[in-house]
Design brief:
By secondary structure, the protein is α+β, with helices and mostly antiparallel strands. The chain is about 40% helix and about 20% strand. The longest helix has 21 residues.
Length: about 425
């Protein structure tokens, strides 16, 4: 477990907001386009990779093992295994962790790992009633049987089931992810104003980062089949002030809630990759590492409070390395919801929560917000579920490179009551 895991390079697509219709790129288009450009600039050939691991929460039916599809499309050749992992919101981070495990076991030395989702293309489904009616229709053998079925048909059968809404509903507790954010807000007394202020700050920080060129290190522009250029993340809005966000109605609990579309992450399409290598691969290919993934942790908690997953995953890493919250130079906590990130901060500062949920004698304290999501987060950038875990690891490294910092943490909440975190160190 002491084998160093080097980050050699990384890149992502622009994150493109879903606009109530299928986006310009399928998930494999996104991953293949950015992956090809990333591999072109390496000192090794794509065929010299040991494997390609891609996280994806919602692959389309014709790309079920999307990792293999993309590996072939990127020119890795038939002999390089490509495979897919899924851990909901942390699928991209799981791909990195799976690569780390294989490198440390000696089975791989050079791995391309990341995540992707094209959530704008999430399917519309038939209801169970419509599927049953169709099954009976195709099973009917006589004109009389079909005529009887026509009389039983109801227009309501044609109402589509939104696949994305089903995917964002926890089957154990029966709550949409936004409703779990309402639970976190209630647990820690987080107000609507605090959520909207946090969200406005996310937009402001993304805008500032775009103007300063802070995303230029990681974004590879895309062209669609008409030649249209997609060069930047397009979900950020200059008019997202706390005052404007306050005008939006609650979405998940319309009567008593405070979680709105404006203080939640956006539904988005995007992909992110990192090249991971062992010391042997670094020597063999004369690679120049940018950093290391020093440690990783997965944690479970109440699915109804899934947004606190980063607290449960990052805290053990901090304890193992003897670190406090603010001993790190930068933090990325994926902004699934404003209430969720604020809730994580409140949990670390709460003596009660740290004792009851984490078994600690005292709270970890207050996280310095000047170190948290310094270039904004998913509320402004979007949250392509499969890609976000890889994006935040990549961005932690890029912030460290830009600022001269040494260590940072990437942490993410995961639907189903899980949390994931990785400790990153600049080389």
């Amino acid at each position: 477990m002491t084998e160093p895991i080097y980050i050699i390079d990384g890149a992502r697509t622009p994150f493109l907001k879903a606009r109530n219709r299928p986006g310009p790129f399928a998930a494999s288009d996104l991953a293949a386009a950015v992956g090809r450009e990333l591999l072109v600039r390496q000192r090794f050939a794509p065929t010299q990779l040991d494997e390609v691991i891609l996280g994806c929460a919602a692959p389309s039916p014709d790309e079920v093992n999307i990792g293999r599809v993309v590996a072939l499309r990127m020119g890795c050749g038939q002999k390089v295994p490509g495979w897919t992992v899924m851990r909901n919101c942390a699928s991209g981070m799981q791909a990195l962790d799976s690569a780390m495990a294989n490198i440390r076991s000696g089975r791989s030395n050079l791995v391309l790992a990341g995540g992707v989702d094209a959530l704008s293309r999430a399917p519309l489904l038939f209801s169970d009633a419509m599927v049953l009616w169709l099954s009976n229709w195709y099973a009917a053998r006589t004109l009389g049987q079909r005529a009887a079925l026509v009389t039983k048909f109801r227009l309501g059968y044609l109402a589509p089931v939104i696949g994305l809404m089903k995917g964002l509903t926890d089957p154990i507790v029966g709550l949409l992810m936004g409703q779990t954010a309402e639970n976190v807000a209630f647990r820690f007394g987080i107000t609507r104003r605090e959520m909207d202020e946090f969200s406005a700050r996310s937009h402001q920080r993304v805008l500032a980062a775009q103007k300063a060129g802070h995303f230029d290190l990681e974004i590879i522009p895309l062209y669609d089949n008409t030649g249209k250029l997609y060069a930047t993340d397009d979900g950020v809005r200059e008019d997202s002030t706390a005052e404007n966000l306050a005008k939006l109605r609650p979405f998940f609990d319309r009567k008593y809630g405070n979680v709105t579309a404006g203080n939640s992450s956006q539904i988005t399409d995007g992909a992110a990759w990192l090249v991971l290598a062992s010391a042997r691969a670094v020597d063999a290919h004369k690679l120049l590492p940018l950093g290391q993934i020093v440690d990783a942790e997965w944690a479970g908690l109440d699915p109804a409070l899934m947004g606190l997953g980063p607290v449960h995953a990052a805290t053990p890493i901090l304890k193992r390395h003897g670190l406090g919250l603010n001993d790190l130079d930068t933090w990325e906590i994926n902004e699934a919801f404003a209430a969720q990130v604020i809730g994580c901060e409140r949990a670390w500062a709460s003596a009660e929560y740290c004792k009851d949920a984490l078994g600690m004698d005292q709270p970890l304290g207050q996280l310095d917000e000047s170190k948290l999501n310094v270039d904004g987060g998913a509320i402004a950038l979007g949250h392509p579920v499969g890609a976000s875990g890889a994006r935040i690891v990549l961005h932690v490294l890029n912030v460290l490179r830009r600022t001269g910092g040494r260590r940072g943490m990437a942490a993410i909440c995961i639907g189903g009551g899980l949390g994931g975190a990785m400790l990153i160190e600049r080389e």
